[in-house]
Structures are given as C-alpha cells and as structure tokens.
Amino acid sequence: MKSITTINEFKEGADIRGFFLCVEKHLRNTRSGDLYLDMVLRDRTGQIIAKLWNDVSEYQDKFSAGDAVVVAGNVDVYLDKLQLNVKKINVASVQSYGRYGYDPALIVPSAKGDTKEMWKELRSYIKMINNKYLKILVTSIYKKYENQLLTHPASVVMHHNYRSGLLEHTLSMTRIGIDLANHYNVDVDLLMTGIFLHDIGKVKEITSELEASYSDEGNLIGHIVLGRDIAIEVANKIKDFPADLLRKVEHLILSHQGQYDWQSPKKPKFKEALLLHLIDKMDAKMNLMMKAIDEDVEEGIWTSRRNYFRIPILKGDLAIMDNESK
Amino acid sequence: MKSITTINEFKEGADIRGFFLCVEKHLRNTRSGDLYLDMVLRDRTGQIIAKLWNDVSEYQDKFSAGDAVVVAGNVDVYLDKLQLNVKKINVASVQSYGRYGYDPALIVPSAKGDTKEMWKELRSYIKMINNKYLKILVTSIYKKYENQLLTHPASVVMHHNYRSGLLEHTLSMTRIGIDLANHYNVDVDLLMTGIFLHDIGKVKEITSELEASYSDEGNLIGHIVLGRDIAIEVANKIKDFPADLLRKVEHLILSHQGQYDWQSPKKPKFKEALLLHLIDKMDAKMNLMMKAIDEDVEEGIWTSRRNYFRIPILKGDLAIMDNESK
Amino acid sequence: MKSITTINEFKEGADIRGFFLCVEKHLRNTRSGDLYLDMVLRDRTGQIIAKLWNDVSEYQDKFSAGDAVVVAGNVDVYLDKLQLNVKKINVASVQSYGRYGYDPALIVPSAKGDTKEMWKELRSYIKMINNKYLKILVTSIYKKYENQLLTHPASVVMHHNYRSGLLEHTLSMTRIGIDLANHYNVDVDLLMTGIFLHDIGKVKEITSELEASYSDEGNLIGHIVLGRDIAIEVANKIKDFPADLLRKVEHLILSHQGQYDWQSPKKPKFKEALLLHLIDKMDAKMNLMMKAIDEDVEEGIWTSRRNYFRIPILKGDLAIMDNESK
Amino acid sequence: MKSITTINEFKEGADIRGFFLCVEKHLRNTRSGDLYLDMVLRDRTGQIIAKLWNDVSEYQDKFSAGDAVVVAGNVDVYLDKLQLNVKKINVASVQSYGRYGYDPALIVPSAKGDTKEMWKELRSYIKMINNKYLKILVTSIYKKYENQLLTHPASVVMHHNYRSGLLEHTLSMTRIGIDLANHYNVDVDLLMTGIFLHDIGKVKEITSELEASYSDEGNLIGHIVLGRDIAIEVANKIKDFPADLLRKVEHLILSHQGQYDWQSPKKPKFKEALLLHLIDKMDAKMNLMMKAIDEDVEEGIWTSRRNYFRIPILKGDLAIMDNESK
Amino acid sequence: MKSITTINEFKEGADIRGFFLCVEKHLRNTRSGDLYLDMVLRDRTGQIIAKLWNDVSEYQDKFSAGDAVVVAGNVDVYLDKLQLNVKKINVASVQSYGRYGYDPALIVPSAKGDTKEMWKELRSYIKMINNKYLKILVTSIYKKYENQLLTHPASVVMHHNYRSGLLEHTLSMTRIGIDLANHYNVDVDLLMTGIFLHDIGKVKEITSELEASYSDEGNLIGHIVLGRDIAIEVANKIKDFPADLLRKVEHLILSHQGQYDWQSPKKPKFKEALLLHLIDKMDAKMNLMMKAIDEDVEEGIWTSRRNYFRIPILKGDLAIMDNESK
Amino acid sequence: MKSITTINEFKEGADIRGFFLCVEKHLRNTRSGDLYLDMVLRDRTGQIIAKLWNDVSEYQDKFSAGDAVVVAGNVDVYLDKLQLNVKKINVASVQSYGRYGYDPALIVPSAKGDTKEMWKELRSYIKMINNKYLKILVTSIYKKYENQLLTHPASVVMHHNYRSGLLEHTLSMTRIGIDLANHYNVDVDLLMTGIFLHDIGKVKEITSELEASYSDEGNLIGHIVLGRDIAIEVANKIKDFPADLLRKVEHLILSHQGQYDWQSPKKPKFKEALLLHLIDKMDAKMNLMMKAIDEDVEEGIWTSRRNYFRIPILKGDLAIMDNESK
Predict the structure, then answer these.
(1) How far is F321 from chain D (nearest CA, A)?
(2) Hey, which of A222, B162, E195, F205 would disulfide with F218, CB 3.0 to 4.6 Å?
(3) Tell me, what's the ipTM?
(4) CA–CA separation, F143 vs D74, rounded Å?
(5) What is the DSSP string of B241-272?
C-alpha cells in the first residue's frame, strides 16, 4: 500500500491513501437521480467532505458512520473548498490494516503516554493495596474490564476526553494518592480503591466506539451508579467481603463528583471520600488547563476565552513588562 | 390503669399517667452527688422536661431515648415552668400496653387516614397493573416490605413527615396516576410502577424508630439508589424479566426527584419519568401547603412566613375587602 | 387552480403553485440597478429563498412580510441551493383561497386536534362551574375573546407555541382539573376558573399574526397583568360580583407562573393557586417533552440535547440491553 | 397628667406614666385561676413585659394589640428582669391625648424631617411637571391619598421602614430626579411621574397601623400591581389621557424594581424606566447603609455584620494606621 | 489624494481610496504557490475582505494587524460578495495622514463629544476639590496619564467601549457627583476623588491600540488593583498624605464594582464607596441602554434581544394603542 | 501559686485559680447603685459568667476585654447556673506568668503541632527554592513577619482558625507541594513561592489579639491585596528582581482563592496558579472536615449538620450493617 496522507496534507489534484474516522455517511440522490454517498471524514489533523459517485451499491454496506475506514481517492475543489472523491473505501481495523500502518491514534486524539506502560504501572499500584478484600476487589474488576480500561476516554466532552484518557486520568491520580493519603492521615487502601474504581462506570456509560458517545444505560443510569453496580457485583462474589467496607466503597463511588449538581447523589461524608473528590477534581482541572493551552489556536501568549475556564490562559512566557519601570 | 393525661392538660400539682416519646434521656448527678435521670418527653400535644429522682438504678435500664414510654408522675413548677417528676416509667408497645390505650398515634404525628384502609386501597391499584412483569415486581416488593410501608414517614423533615406518611403519599399519587397517564397518553403500567416504587428506598433510608432519622445506609447511599437496589434485586428473581423494562424502572426511580440538586443523579428522560416526577412534586407541594396551614399558630387569616414556602399562606376566608369600593 | 406543492417536494426546474408564509420581504436593487423582491417563504415542510424579478411594481404592494401568500413560480438552483423564482404572488386568506385549499395549518404549525371540537368541549366544562359569578365571568370573557382563543398560540417560543396552542393547552388542563381539585379537596370552581383565565392575557400579549410575536402591551405589561385586567374589567360589569372572590381570581392569574423569575409578581398563596400553578407547569413540561421528541431529527432512539431540557430524550424503545447478561 | 417616662428610664419600684405601642396582648389565667392580661409594650427606647392583674374585665376591651396606649403603672422585677404592673390603660390618639404629649413619633420610629415641610416641598415638585396629563394625574392621586402619604412607611422591614418613610423616600428621589433626567437626556416629566407614583401601591399594600404589616390585597396582589391600578383608575377619569402615555406610566410602575426576583413582572424597557429603577435602588441602598450605621450597637468604628449588607460598615473615622509606616 | 470612500459606499468595479483598521492580516499561498495577503479591513461603516496579490514582498512589512491603514484598491465580487483588491497599503497616523483626512474616529467608534472640550470640563471639576491632598493626588495622576485618558475606551466589550469612552464615562459621573454627594450628605471630595480614580487602572489594563484588548498586566492583575497601585504610588510621593485618607481612597477603587463576582475584592464599606458604586453602575447601565438602541438594526420600534439586557428595548414612540378602547 | 483549675472542673463552692481569656468586660451598677464588673471568661474547656464586686476601682483598669487574665475567685450558683466571684484579676502574659504555667494554648484553641518544630521544617523547605530571586523574596518576608507567622490563625471563623493555624496550614501545603508540582510538570519554585506567600496578607488582615478579628486594613483592603503589597514591597528592594517573575507572583497571590465570589479579583490564569488554588482548597476542606469531627458533640457515629458542609459526617466506624444480609 502506498504511503498514507493526512488531511492537512491534501492538495488539489492529488491522489491519496489514508485512514479516517467516518463521522457522517448519507446515501443521497444526485439531481439526475443517481445514488451517491455523501460523507464527512476526519483524522487527527482535520476534517473533509467526501463523495463516492461510482460503485455505490458495492461500497455502501462495507462501512457505517462511526467506523474507522481506509480510503483511496482524489482531491478536488468544490465551491472554493477541498473535497475528496472516494474511489475505494473499507472498514479499517488493527487486525486487517495494522501492518499497513493503521493505528486508532491516527484518527482520534489519544493519551500521550504508551498504553501498555501505563497499564503496567497501574497494576503495580494495585499490588500495593494491603487490605485483602479491597485488593481482590480492584484486581478482579480490572481483570474483567481490562480491554475497555486500556482504550476508554474519561469523558465525552470534558477532561481526558480522548483514547485511553480514562487510563491516563486514573494513573495520574494513583501516582499522587498514596502520599496524599499519608499526609492527611486517612486510610490509604480505601483512598486508593476509590481512585481505582471511581470512574469504572465509564466503561458502561461511554460506548467503546472511536467516536465516544453515551450508551443507553449511560443515558438512563449514569457512570456513577453503574460504577457502584460493578463494585457490588464483584464484591458479592468475594467470600466474606465485609458489609461495612463495601458500603464505604459504594459511598466513595457515589460521592466522588462532590456536588449534587455534578450528578453525585451524595456529598462526601468521610475523609477518604472527600480526599478522593478533591484529587479527582484537581486532576480534571489541571488536565483541562493543559488541554486549553494545547488546543488553542490564537497567536500570542494568551489563549482565547473559548475553553472550559472561559478566561484567557497564559500559554508561554511573559515578555518583560517594563511599564512604569522607567 | 387510670385515665391518660396529655401534656397540654398538665396542671401544677396534678398526678398523671400517660404515654410519651422519650426524646432525650441523660443520667446526671445532683449537686449533692446523687444520680438522677434528666429527660425530655413529648406527645402529640406538647413537650415537657421530666426528672426521675428515686430508684434510678431500677429504672435507668428499662428504656432508652427514642422509646415510647408509659409514665406515672406528678407535675410541679421549676423556674416558672411546668416539669414532671417521674415516679414510674417503662417502655410502651402495642403488645404490652395497647389494651391500656397505647397507640403510637398518641405520641407522634400520624397520617389522618386509617392505615389498613389505605393499604387495602393501595393493593387494589396494584392489581390493576396489566404488564405481568411489573405487576409481580410491585406485588413482591410490597409483600416484602409490608410492615415498613404501613408505618414509615415519607421524609424526616419535609412533606408527609409523619407516621404512615409514605403510605399516604404513595396512595395519593396512585389515585391520580391512572387518569393522568391516560390523559398524557403514556404507558399506564410504567407510570404506576414508578409511583409504587419511587420512594421504596425510604424503608431503608429512614430508621423505623418513632423519632425518624437517617440510617447509616441512608446517609451513605440514599433512598434513591437504595430504592433502585430493591427493584433490581427483586426483578432479578423474576423469570425472564425484560432487561429493557428493568432499565426503565431503574430510571424512573433514579430520576424521580427531577433535578440534580435534589439528589437525582439523572433527570427524567422519557415521558413516564417526567410525569412521575411532576406528580410526585405536585403531591409533595400540596401536602406542604396543607401542613403549613395546619401547623401555623398565628392569629388571623394568614400564616407566618416560617414554613416551606417562606411566604404567608391564606388560611381562611378573606373578609370582604371594600377598599376603593365606596 | 393546479395542485399545491409543498416546499419539501420542490425539484429543480419544476413549476409550482402553493401557499406560504412570507417570513421576510425586502425591495432590493440588482447590480444593474433594477428593482427586485428578495423573500423568504415558509410552509410546514420547510423554508426557501424566493425572488421576484418582473412586474415588481405590480406585486410589491400586494402583500407584506408576515402575510400568508399564494404563489406561482419556478424552482431553480443558485449557489448549489434550490431557490424559487416567483411569477405571481398575492395575499391568501380563508375567505379568498379556502376553496382552493388554503388553510393556515398548511403554513404554520398547528395543534393536532380539531379546533371546533376542542372549543365545544371547553365550553362544556365552563357550564359545569357552579358558582354563578365565576360561571358568568368565564362565559363572558370566552365570548368576548372567542376569535383569538380559537387560534392563538400559548407562547412565542416555549410550550404549545403553535396555532391553537392556547386552546389545546387550556383544554388539556381543564380535562384533568376537576379530578385533581376533588382529589386535593380544593374549591373546584375556583381552580377551574383559574385554568380558564390564567393565560387569557396572551390574547393581548401575542399578536394574532401567523408569525407570533409580542405586541407593544405584551412587551410593556405582559400577559400576567393583562390577563388580570381582563378579569377585573369583565367582573366589574357583573352585578354584585363579590370583592373577595375577585381578589382570589386576580391572585390565581398573577401567581400562576409560581415563581418571581418566571415573571409572576406573587407566589401562590392559597391551595387553588398552588394547584393551578402545578397543573400549568405539568401540562407545559409534558408538552415540551412531546415537542422535543416530535421535532428531533437525530437518527437513533435518542434526541439531541438541543431542546428545552438540554438532555437527550428517549424517543423510542430501547433495544434489549444484554450487558452483563451473558 | 404627670410627666412621661420612657422605657429606657424605668427603674425598679418607680411609678410611671407613658405612651406605648401594645405589641402583644393575651388574656390568661393565673395558676389560681384568675384572669390577667399579659402584654408586651414598646416605645422608641425599648420594650418591656407588662401585666394587668386587677379590673381585668374593665380594661380588656378598651384596647387591642397594635394600638397606641396610655398607661399608668409600677415597675418591679421578676426573674431578674424589669416588668411593668399596669394599673390603668387606654387607647391613645392624637385627638384625645395630643395635648398630654402623645405623638406617634414617641412610640414608633419616624422619618427625621418635618412631615409638613416634606409634603410642601413634594407638592412644589409636582407643580413643575409640564405635561398637563401627567401633572393632573399625579396631583389627583396625591390629593386622594394625602393622608396615607403623610404617614406611611416605605416598607415593612427594608429601607425607609418607619413612619413617613414613604414620603421621605419619594422626596429624596424627587430632589435628584430633575437633574438626572436632564443629565441623561430623558423625558423629565415621565421620570418625575415615575418617581411620584412608583411606590403609590404601598398605601394599599401596607396597613396604616402603627405596627406596619401587609394588608390582604398587599399579600395577594402586591404594591407594584396595586400602584398601577391606582394610576389607571385615576387616568381613566382624565379626559383624553393619551393611551400610549398611560402605557408608559404603567410600565414605569411595573418595572421599577428592575428584576423579576424583586417581584417586578417586567424589566425596564425604556430609558426613563431604567433611570427610575436606578434612582430608586440608589436611594434605598443609601438609606439602608445609613440605617445600618444608626442602628448598630457595637463598640468601635465598625458595625456588626447583622445588617442588610452582611458586612461590617465603617461608622466613624479610621484611627491613623501606621502599619509599615515606620 | 482623492476623496475617501467608506465601506458602506463600495460598489462593484469602483476604484477607492480610504482609511481602515486592519483587523486581520495573513500571508498565504495561492493554489499556484504564489504569496498573497489575505486581510479583513474595517471602518465605522462596515467590514470587508481584502486581498493583495502583487508586490507582496514590498507591502507585507509595512503594516500589521491592529494598525490603521491607508489603502488604494479596486472593488470586485467573489462568491456573490464584495471584496477589495488592494493595490497600495501603508500605515496611517494622524501625523502622516491627518492632512489627508485621517482621523481615528473614521475607523473606530468614538465618543460623541469633543475630546478636548470634555478634558477641559473634567479639569475644571478637579479644581473644585477642597482637600489639598486629594486635589494634588488627582491632579498628579491626571497629568501623568493625560494621553491615555484622552483616548482610552472604558471597557473592551461592555459600556463606553469606544475611543475616549473612559473620558466620557468619567465626565458623566463627575457632572452628577457633586449634587449627589450633597444630597446624601457624604464627603464631596472623597466621592469626587473616587469618581476620578475608580477606573484609572484601565489605562494599564486595556492596550491603547485601536482594537482594544487586554494587556498582560490587565489579564494577570486587573484594572481594579492596578488602579489602586497608581493611587498609592502617586500618594506616596505627596508629602504628609494622611495614611487613613489613602486607605479610604484605596477602598473606593477596590470596591467600586460593588460585588465580588464583578471582581471587586471588597464590597463598599462606607457611604462614599457605596455611592460611588451606585453612580458608576447608573452611568454604565444608562450607556448600555443607549448603545443597545443606537446599535440595533431591527425594523420597528423594538430592538432585538441581542443586547446587554437580553430583552427588547423600546426605541421610539409607541403608536397609539387602542385595544379595548372601542 | 496554687494549681490551675479549668472551667470544666469548676464546682459549686470551690476556690479556684486559673488563666482565662476575658471575652467581655462591662462596668455596671447594682440595683443599690454600687459599681461592679460583669465579665465573660473563657478557656479551652468552656465559658463562664464572672462578677467582681469588691475593689472595683482597683481592678477595673488592670485589664481589658480581649486580654488574657489570671484570676482568683470562688464558684457559686446563680439562677441555676455556675458563676465565678472574682477576688483578684490581672493581665497574664508569658513574660509575667509563664513560670506559673501560663501558656496562650490554655485559653485559646491552638494548632496541635509544636510551633518551633513546624517553623523549623518550614524554613527547610524555603531553602529548597532554586530560583535565587524567589528564595530571597520568601526568606526576607518570612524573616520580617516571623513573629506573626508563628502565632497567627489562618482565618477568623473558617479553616485553621486557631493559634498558629496559618503556620500549620502553610506547612501542610508545603509538604505536598513539591511532589504535586513535579507530578503536574509545573515550575516547582513558582508553586512553592505561591504556597509560602498566598496567605501572607493575613498577618495584616487579622489582628494578633488572642480573640482574632479583622483589622481596619483587613476590612478595607483584605488579605489578598495586602499580601500582594508585601510581596511587591520586598521584591522592589531586591536588586534586579525580574519584572515578569514578580507579575506572576502577584497573580499567584491575587488568584489563589480561585473564584470571584471568594474575593479573588482574578481567576488562576496559568498552571502554577491553578495548582496553588487547588492545593489550598484541598488543605482547607480537609481541615474543615477534621474540625467538624473534632468539634462535634453528638452521640453516635454521625456528626450533626451544624458544620461547614451542612451534612452529617461519619465520625467513626460503621457497625456491621446486616440489612438484607439474612
């Protein structure tokens, strides 16, 4: 297969091959009545309108909106904008196209760290839990949902909202959790269990598609309650899991958002729950500021106000300000 | 046993017999070093400070704060207020003192209707559910928690916060539910199931003591999530209970408060859920206004502002207002 | 006259005849200096840009923006979009074009029920009022404003914001009012009077044009206060109308929005007023959810978040969810 | 009659004569079964509990709670506090006791200025209105409600909440209104009419008793809407009063609170309405700060936080602060 | 030089000369690879896209985005819109092009009054300050920042957000300050000093470019704290400036926004501070309403809701409303 | 001197010696006209009313309200409560009474750690700052304000509101600051400087009396702006302190509260400022929960709702909950 071209490299008249996320796909009629496919394709570098005019019946069932696709085509210009004429298109997966260079990270934003390294480090923290019930609880849950935990985003539109964002967020909290637990003299095992499990419901709330969206149970129940379900279900299979300990784990999950209007049905009512909430919020806010800086496209040292904080964020160094200094 | 005297009938010097809720109980020392019991007693008509000076060792283990008690004693005056000198005191229950006139309704506020009649009527509505899964779900849960459902309040300090208030509130919603479901063309069975189960978690959230308070799981988990647990647990024992139907029932319970800041982790997302929330709110608000009128002690036709609504409520008829009419 | 074509049926090159709402109308110059009319036309199926190039002086005074118009013309394409070249255009009314098929319901969204049937049913409820003063008050007002009540929307952009929406909304509340009044043991006549009159000020607040907007007095005074004016004015012509009863009717109208920030200058201060508010809100919210479902254009079973509730609404049946079920 | 003693001058054992507001009055039984009157009396200097033990049947119908009373009695001590034994008591009015020194200003807080002078000055401003319709409107209304306008407070618990407070507040706004109208180039007559009439509804909302409280129509309708009623009623009797001018006056009154949650059903929608609101708010806030300073009882230069602003207010001069200055 | 053409006078094919604000400037490649300049130009009458195709290397360093520019070019049409082909372009300043008619007021919105006259009047008010320390403080600061005070806007997007808006706003407050200070019996000198200095920090917060934006210190510190810095710095150079007086001036500046969420770190704590805040808010709100009316482009007597107040504002006279009058 | 008795050990009839905070002191007349001192005394164990009847003229000038006092007296009972008859009273200081056991920690709540140890540890962290300007800035400030930093509370009524609370709070943040700075990859020196200086303004805002209250400049300016003043004043004396670095330090201090309504005039605009705010909030909230648990007096495992969080906090271990477990 020829080399891959990303959308930001498209030029009028060029023949290209590439991997994209098919964001929209509609079967339409030309004014003359022929069928064609009207699509929107996206990769990490941009987005483009694409049309497939020929062999529509052959290609239309090969892929759906939301799929990763491999495409061959030709770039032209329509109404002063670049557009892609698709010649061939098919679903892309790591199995089928990995050897040709396909990697989901090409078409959707992803965490910066290496997924496997992050997973390995996270597992090492789980081994440090001393309480045998909590250790087996976390271990069992992480084994059961390993696949999702490796790739899930931590949210659809907020913090860590990219491939493996949930893993990155959890690991980040884990790294600072033990020290903070000791510093504030709270139960380390309980806090760390809270960190590992607080967002576990996201594996059910957010669909595992490339284009993250809410599942039916995500819409109806939500990750907070679904996460507690996972903890209860697994704990109930662990012999003699203490009832009071489970209630505390449930509360950790239910209260981790910290406020009712962030959809937590309870506010933190013991020290580990409060600290879990504060670490979660710290990690989310720091990530949101780093994203605001990364994603900003303004010239100069200040971002625009179009970010989570609704204020300009300082991106770089201040020039020396010599007001009044003369 | 002699006739019962209620607190509002106490007079200086009188010997009395009566049933009370023991609100507080403390073992204290007199200045001369002797032990005595310092208590607060309450019935539906008022509240009084009580002391037991003699045979303390005999009586002090016979009852606890929170118990219904049967008391014999003598009324005197201390620092210009009536006070009860207790001679005999013991725990009262329907079993032991019912024949002497004890009824919990004497010592704690209770719903106005007859509990058994209300229960019977409620059961008749359950039988009207057509969907066999929903009918067996509600029937099983109401059988399991019959005892609590007969006496529980619907809240600790808000609407229907009195003995059998939960039953009264649920029945009230039931009576209007079928018509409203038909009027708005929604699934009657689903709405009625929502009405029956929306507050079922209160049987776990609120302790069944005479003096209502929150249980540990009430504090940590809350009635919304606990109620969903009850529905899931029972549904899982019903053969072939449809998964999608259960999800809808769960959502009905989770979203019935309607807003995040009333501790619902989800807002209503389908018509039955929205209507359930609106009926629940209507019934609560109407009850709160009726309570505000009943409990007000101001003279005149307006209540004070010390009620849920923070405004004066019109209690009776307006006098004819002839301003400007001459 | 030839058959009517709706906007969603327009095809390039077709000659069409149809009825539309003229949303915008501007007299403009072509680059060569000739006059032409630049218009936006709308019907229930869509919206289109239209131009009239010839005989401008003949047609330009025949109609205004906001009018229902009958149009003959030809569809062509400009800048890749369909556009209508108007050949003939005139104001349409039921009197002049009814026999050719004109019906306001063709060009503006309308209530689903038959207007006359709804009106007839509403009148039957008025007759059930027992209090003679209230009955004559409502009867007189409904007689006086019959024309507006038949066609007015209940709001400009919120609930029941379509032709005859006010009638539909009032009837809907009426149908459930008597039962709810009895259920909560409030004065049925007073509640029903409140239902009939609570939004009567809308006949003055909203202009009766096809494209609803606010009148001057709507902007300056508002429907709540204007509605009370109507009640007072008519009551003052009824011999011996009791002063205290009128004050209650006034309060019902003034407080029906329930909260200051929804522009009610008073909160409900007696039971009928509170129940009126709750029924009004219930009917509005149920209508808003049904509208959100009807108007949504997303694929799948969930609406977008672009609705009154700012959350996805479940439009259809859940697929069986088998998570965890294996 | 002997000289008057105010409550702050009461001493144990003293015989006193004085004028008071009877804040509470209850007919009660002594422990021996005799009737007595239990009262709370207040004047500008303080408040005291009072009892009348003898000739109860003679005195009990002579006055009511809320009345100004003339009292003769004797001061003693009960439970370590001063208490008044009433020997004689009767209703006091300017007619009957003015010559003995009775003045309502002795028993309720009053505006500082001389009422008649304030009224005279206010009338002079009315004469400056140029628009003949507005001048006759304001003149007629002020004539009709002259008695109430002379003594009414401007609110029950907020700004200018004392005898003649409404007059003082209106005059204060009037004094700055003309200049501000010219400065902001708005219609002087319209603004001044707004100033004169914005709070006119208070004469109906607040009862004219010494102890201000809300009337029935104040509770049900409120001063904003009642004030507009007064303006409309009078304007309708003025020949050819222009309809558009009246609508503007109505809007001035309806919108003067400026925000929905201060019970204005409309926000200011033209310049005179906005300026009226801003002047009203300025005058209210300045009065509230001056009251906070006047009523504060803390030692030192800062008030407590128990005032409208919930912050300490600087009452006097700062001592020279020399921190860091050495 | 030929006569100046403003953007609203541009016609297809015309050769024009004019002065504009260069809002955007990008160096881009044509599809054939040649460099060109892609610009957005603006004047008081509108905005247009402009391209410079030839001699790019000669012109591209002559000006930057944000500059005032003098342009010669030719108007043509692209994708149905007017566009300017720039032939010559250079930076414009009053020094270099004033004699050809350049005036910053041509390209950015400006206060209506004559700047020099306003400045002269403002200076006359400063002279009226009696307290010698305050007079020298204000005089020194106004001398130091005279240049900025002549041209600065009072805000970037809110009230008085145009050239010389700060001067206009301060002068407006000054004109009403003395009378209001006397009316409310507060220290005139202190209030007037507050008026002169409350927004002085804006000369540092807002860059003095034609296109107003925030400076680095504006973003990091803000005009409230920067303004206090200016007052302290100058006061410290005045011999024997009383410490307590300076603290009051500091508080006036810090608290003038009146509320924490408008970025004042303190609420007004004495009368002059409260009155300063109220005058500032009055002047800002009146200006915002006048701007809303001036800038509105709707037909009819009502503005759209797209203004600071989010409501329609009455722009002109009401037509006679004869509802109900027949 | 005899041994010290604390208030919780007082018994009727006992002679006592002790150290107390004199919370209130009033010179009053007995009913017979003699002078006496009426006082409220407090120590860490409780509060009591005290009277000095003899030698009033000798003692009344020896101490003031707010002083630490040494007292000899006798306990009796008045109106059923213990009261102290003071025989001798004088001001207590460490200098004069330290050898007799006086320690401010006896009479006001204090941080748990040893002040000198905490100070030493804090100094060791200052030495770790690498940036020479920041290190000298913090070192100089901590040297200048050492005395206040050793004993100041961190607030008057909120978190760490006890003797040496500011030191305890700063040290707690310091201990976790370096790790968190590294974790989030921000400038360690800048963050640590922010931690050291964020609350430095409290040494001026809060008076150093035993009974903490706000100074005049605390009331007028506030600790946020006063703290920035301290940083600027010291930095300006450090040769070549970089202007941009100082601006960042200023912003750290100004924005550390994170939100406008907590009186920060700016929100955090770079990563170190955001992290500083989050650490500050974490430390404050954890302290508030620990205080809520420590200060609660309810029986059982749940605190009352009368704490910062307005919810019950779990104080101890849950009993095993066996609901549903049978």
Answers:
(1) 45
(2) F205
(3) 0.89
(4) 66
(5) --HHHHHHHHHHHHHTT-SGGGT-SS---SHH
